[in-house]
Amino acid sequence: MDFCGPILDVVTRVWDCTAKHARYIMDLQENMESLRNAMEELKNVHGDVKRRVEREEHRRMRRTNEVDGWLHTVLAMEIQVNQILEEGDQEIQNKCHGTCCPKNCWSSYKLGKKASKKLGAVTELRNKGRFDVVADSLPQAPVDERPMKKTVGLDLIYKDVCRCIQDEQLGIIGLYGMGGAGKTTLMTKVNNEFIKASKDFEIAIWVVVSRPANLGKVQEVILNKLYIPNDRWRNRTEDEKAVEIFNVLKAKRFVLLLDDVWDQIDLQMLGVPSPNSQNKSKVILTTRSLDVCRRMEAQRSIEVKCLTEEEAINLFKEKVGQTTLNSHPEIPQLAEIAAEECKGLPLALVTIGRAMAGKNTPQEWERAIQMLKTYPSKFSGMGDHVFPILKFSYDNLPIDTMKACFLYLAIFPEDHEIFSLGLIFRWIGEGFLEECDSMDEAFNQGHDIIEHLKTACLFQSGNDYEMVKMHDVIRDMALWLATAYIGNNNRVVVEENDIVEAYQVSKWKEAQRISLRTERLEESTIPWNFPNLLTLIFYGGYLKTFPSGFFHFMPIIKVLDLSGTGITELPIGIGKLVTLEYLNLSKTRIRKLSMELKTLKRIRVLLLDNMFHLEMVSKEVISNLSMMKVFALVFNESLEEEKASQSSSTEEEEPKNSREDSEALNLWKNNEALLEELEGLEHINWVCFQIEGASSVQKLLSSQKLKNVMRIISLRNLDGMTFLQLPRMKHLQGLEMRRCGELQEIKVQEKDGFVADNYITNSNFWCLRFVRIAELPKLLDLTWLIYVPNLENLSVRHCESMEEVIGDANGVPENLGIFSRLRDLNLQDLPNLRSISRRALPFPSLTELLVIRCPNLRKLPLDSNSARNSLKTIDVEQDWWEGLQWEDDTIRLTFTPYLSVHT
User: Are 40 and 123 in contact (CB under 8 A)?
Assistant: First the structure.
């Protein structure tokens, strides 16, 4: 029986094998269904994984190689399974008719076996699709291209910025300018076109800083550009993050572009290595403030200015579109008028240009232009877009005083330029600078405010460096802030009409500040009433009279400016303005200051400049203005010449007894008595005065108080004086001398060691900025000017005997710095002048040199290093220039490019 066991084992094995193989045939349909279901499940998992991958890829991630391989394997598996399923369906359909047996058992066997194996593979592949991570961070491109539209007017400044980037000595570059000028657009162009194409940098990082700056957020933006693992970043302090950033960036040549910077950013605290010529990295920033560029230690600060007229028109027309421009022949010209209202500011040009697209009739354009001129805040996009953007600059001003001073300039007309000093006088009258302990401190603060507003691009320099103005769109924004923004359109009134009718004035009861340009104010049957008025300014020379009672009810007025009007006498009722602190009568035609002014005891600033018709001042008027701090009575040369030309006709028109009025002081014969009244004022601190006659000069020289308060003096008609010794006047800023026919020599009061290495700090004339000499026919030289270290403007005219400007300066050190701050030198009609200086001078600040009708001046005190970085113009006669003598031809060639031939 022993042989039965092996036989039974063989039979069992054969049966199992046969049964297994038979199951492939018998279970073919069931296996096909199982494979189909498994494949559907795998496809569902595939879809889920694919969606996760796509979502991460939208986040700028990159799928892992494992996931990518799995997804491709699934697609291949699907093709294989579909083929098996298709063959299986056919095999099942080919069974013997009426039975369950396949026609071809071998074929069914093979197909069943294949399906069984594939089912296992599908199941295994599905189980592999359970991924924790489907994508990794995508390596950053070195430079991210940013969206940018076509630019207009940036080509020249773009090239300048690119040159700066290429200069290895410039690590930090600042782009500054007023809001909406195109700073971000310029930096975008630099990023997209220059840095992206450059091979000099390994990475560029763009950060929008904005206000207030958040160091942590800036670091996060930098992190997104650098490959720093999360475990070295998450839950770290700002200092630890700075270390991580530094360790990555120190090994790279990088460009960090900081957009919209409002305050200094400490690069060290940020973790950014300081860019220099060794690491060849760069930091470029945009800001609205030059001061930010300075505090960021920018080696080069470039102002992004508004567009030129042609560029502005091109940008404006591009936004309007050709369809609109071609819709009527008058529209292109009207478009240029509308563009002019934007004064080259791209933000305004784009906003208004888009708003005018589709306006196809001249009438629509004319209405729009009128609205831009009168109510710009109501124009589409201005009050809700442009002005709020510009307002950020206003909001960023550090103190309320500065904000008030900024808004104040808006009450003047468009394109109006005003002397910085005159603006500060008004601020003093308004009480903006009351916290200052002295007038000098007030003026210093006023100048600081002006400079801050300039660096913040809210003020602009005028044609003269001492003048300021506002960009028209900034001015419109300021008026919007002062009126519509706070819900009171009548709070500030700025009007320009030939005739102001009574009904218009009646609407101004709420006004705090009024600025008018008009020929006539109509009479009113209703009493004039200005209960809230603080400031009243008339400008232009048209208005000659005021309606009766006009000044009778202004109970809180502080500032009255009648300068430049055509009035010939003080307005009736001006004596009722007892709260007045600032009165400006300059350039009026008033002939006498009457006793009515005596009641204005709060006056702190009284300005009478260029009143060339003024002959008399009633006695004790000035001495009764007990609070007065500022008094100005001087002429400029052109107006004085006009006065002289009209003097004969004035004498004929004026009653003779007015000149002999025993109750008045005559200004032009001898004004010693007026000086005495000024001397008696307790608070007087700032005087600009025209001194007539030798006895008046002696009065000045004998009074320490008068010498201390004089800021500008104009000496005239010093009959009998051949010699003048100028005393120490520590606050004197300007000196004019004219028509002193016998004066031959001027000296200064010296002290021991005056001319020495520390002569500047010892100078008796530290504050003296300008000297103007005219019609002194016997004056020989101006050698005393070597003791004026801060002289900026020198004008010498019609001095027939003058042979030298700076004469014998033996003993004066070479390093004295003569004329080191001189900006303008004007020499005219000096027939005997032979020398400006006996040695060449550096002239490091000289911008303009004018020499006219000085035939014997054959040599200029210049060498190849003179005025190297400052000179702009040499205005001379052609023949005279060609006859000049030079040390060598190189010096002549150095200065020839600055030549402007005088005609």
Answer: no
